[in-house]
Input
Amino acid sequence: MTARKGILGATIFFVLGSIVFGVVYRTMAARPVDASSVEVKIDNFSFTPPSLKVRVGTQITWTNRDDIPHTVVEEEKIFRSKVLDTDEKFAFTPTKPGTYKYYCSIHPKMTAKVVVE
Amino acid sequence: MPQRNNEILFDHNHDGIDRRGFLKCMAWAGTGALCVLQGGVLKSYSLSDASHQHAAGELSFVQISDSHMGFNKPANPDVVSTLQAAVTKINALPVAPEFMLHTGDITHLSKPGEFDQVQQILQSAKPKEVFFVPGEHDVLEDDGQQYRERFGKNTKGAGWYSFDKKGVHFVGLVNVMNLKAGGMGSLGAEQLEWLEGDVKHLTKSTPVVVFAHMPLWNIYPDWGWGTDDSAQALSYLKPFGSVTVLNGHIHQTMQKVEGNVTFHTAASTAFPQPHPGEGPSAGPMKVPAEQLRALLGVTDVNYTRGERALAVIDSTLE
Output
């Protein structure tokens, strides 16, 4: 009897827990990345992720993993890296909310954006 | 199989341009033939023909491109040696070229030492006069200031200029400045205005050679292989009977004929890049070491007075 109750209790706990987890996970996907710092990878002439959502105050670090140099230049020049060779990094921490579109000034077809909340 | 000294004559449009023959010739190019367009008549030559029977004519010059001095990744860890091999190739040409054009990406990171090294290596080339235009890798961080200090004498704006050699008018254009997000190469209003004035008073029979780093025709916009405002530039060249456009940037040879304009891109002396769309990106393409030099090269150009078009001949380093 006790064993069955135990199993029942565990099952209920597991099911409820899954539901709660699922709800929390789904809502989290629509919210900005919840971390103090996030990474953007530069490789194969692209920025990954091409669209990033973060909170004000989150440090964003771009790392160039390509075998060609690139830059990170915001269209209104709000942030601008020097030339990044392979494995070099650039960091920026937004202080104001908004949508920041940026690109590589050497290879301007490489475009991406950061949405800051 | 390519045939020697074979003339092809299909001139259905009666404009002296042999389009069908040209396409046939280009198909042979992959097997080691070269196509020489002279006065509207195509001749094909086997590249294994060591004597390189081209018409030396009155003017002979060489185009090199994309030396990327400072690049040291696996696609080519030794760009110094391959540039030196290009100079050796140039010095072995049966007709010594009078001068050289370098269509940009001279350096990889715009560093002073990189510029120095290229200039030093080119000193051992027989043609002492070299005309440059910058690539996007030559104008990093300083808007091209260093580039212009070295190569910008008598140029205007970002470094554009023109000069004449033996009746041929040469125009060096800069299309790598102030590139806009999502765009390709860019000439800009000031340079276009200058170009219009520069060619306006030339007689229309003057052969014109335009050289610039990024292609002046849209080879592959997805990879930025083109120039956003080149159509306007080309409109100023439309009245001329012979226009040759020489570009770099794409690290492979490619050619297109449109009316009186022959567009041609040169191979790099540093590393090859994939064909349009073949691969994840436009970047350096790694090949087995023994194949590298067959994908790098120089371009020899010859002009004979009275011939409408210039003969453009590509050679690989090996």
Notes: Residues 37-116 of chain A form a domain with the Immunoglobulin-like fold (CATH 2.60.40.420). The beta strands of chain A are 37-43, 46-48, 51-54, 59-64, 73-74, 89-92, 98-103, 111-116. Chain A is about 25% helix and 30% strand.
